Amino acid sequence: MNAPDTAVADPLADFLTRVEARLQPLPAGPGFPDAGDIRGDHDLDPSMALPPDIPARPAAVLVPVVMRPEPTVLLTRRSSALPEHSGQIAFPGGKIDPDDSTPIAAALREAEEEIGLKPAHVAPLGFLDVYLSRTGYRILPVVAVVTPPFELKLNPREVAAAFEVPLAFLMAPEHHERHTRLWKGRERTYYAMPYGDHYIWGVTAGILRNLWERVYR
């Protein structure tokens, strides 16, 4: 199957069943899981691979699927004042701090700091493949379900907006467009999933593509 079957009686239950069978399980220790591939900006463009002499900084993001009758994915638009990736669509998350006990703890902490999403509403389910970005981050995507009702409180220094996109839209491969643009004097290729006024691309679109590959392909 190439996309969520909108004819199923319960799309949320269908998603949970697929995730349980196909995602990497939650690890017992503080490190990244050993299984899985290394995905990244180099998937569509090998020249975008991170040079081996540049160390990758560990990070974790939350891939939050909201438990609605028609499930959605909660995304953010980063503040235009940020020095890196300003104005881009992103998952809640960020760098793993020394005080974070696990990557899951880092993703939950960042989500609460950025958008006020309380951990009590979040249930981690498993991991996608590690994503290596050209900007030097080794990102572990933590797939989780978010139970409504919940209230968000955005940190305006980091997040300009938070919004939900239907999971069915994001998991439909016909929406996984391949775009190109000039970057540092050369043309690069990347995934993009435009949705209304939101241009979802780059790392965020690449991780969503991996979610489709793992759960629905």
From TrEMBL:
Keywords: Hydrolase, Magnesium, Manganese, Metal-binding
A GO molecular-function descriptor: coenzyme A diphosphatase activity
Superkingdom of the organism of origin: Bacteria
UniProt-listed Pfam families: NUDIX
SUPFAM superfamilies with a match to the protein in the record: Nudix
Cofactor dependency: Mg(2+); Mn(2+)
Ranges where the Nudix hydrolase domain occurs: 56-187
CDD domains registered for this protein in UniProt: NUDIX_CoAse_Nudt7
NCBIfam families: PRK10707.1
Record-given protein name: Hypothetical nudix hydrolase YeaB
Species in which this protein is naturally found: Blastochloris viridis (Rhodopseudomonas viridis)
Upper taxonomic lineage: Bacteria, Pseudomonadati, Pseudomonadota, Alphaproteobacteria, Hyphomicrobiales
